[in-house]
Amino acid sequence: MPELAWLRRLVTALALVMMLGIAAVAATLWLRLSPSLPQLPAAITLPQGETAAAVTFARDWTVVVTGAGTILLFDSTGRLRQSVAPDS
């Protein structure tokens, strides 16, 4: 019966290693996929008559696409840096 005791310890050790591996994978996924929000400006003022259709964030600026298709690039202070009009 010493073989059964050895097998029981081996199965227990393997189960513990598997649980530690699953915990490590879960912790890695949690750390890598946790949302890190960018620094947003206090306020963004759109040009007169424009409405925001989509907003996205880059490293140092905020990009707003208006309902008319104009792309507006705002810096980290909320100042309009560039405007790209759609092709007509």
* Tally of separate domains: 2
The strand order across the widest sheet is 1-2-3-4
Which residues sit in consecutive blocks of at least 5 with pLDDT less than 50?
none
Oligomer: single chain
- Report the strand count: 4
Largest sheet, in brief, is:
4 strands, antiparallel
Percentage of residues in strands: 25-35%
Helix content percent band: 25-40%
Number of helices: 1
What's the order of the H and E elements? Answer: HEEEE
Mean pLDDT: 90
Cα-atom Rg, whole angstroms? 27 Å
Shape: rod-shaped
Secondary structure class reads alpha+beta
Give the distance, in angstroms, between the N- and C-terminal Cα atoms: 85 Å
Key terms:
about 90 residues; 2 domains; about 35% helix
Give a quick precis of the structure.
InterPro entries: DUF6476. It contains one helix and four strands.
Question: What does this molecule look like?
Answer:
There is one protein chain. The chain is an alpha+beta fold and 88 residues long. It has two domains: 1-36; 38-88, no CATH class. Helix content is 36%, strand content 25%. The protein is built from one helix and four strands. It has one helix at residues 2-33, and strands at residues 52-57, 61-66, 71-75, 80-84. Strands 1-2-3-4 form a four-stranded antiparallel sheet, with no helix packed on it. Strand 2 (61-66) and strand 3 form a beta hairpin. The longest helix has 32 residues, at 2-33. It is rod-shaped and about 85 Å long. 5% of the residues are buried. The model has no long low-confidence stretch (mean pLDDT 90). The chain crosses the membrane at residues 6-31. Keywords: Membrane, Transmembrane, Transmembrane helix.
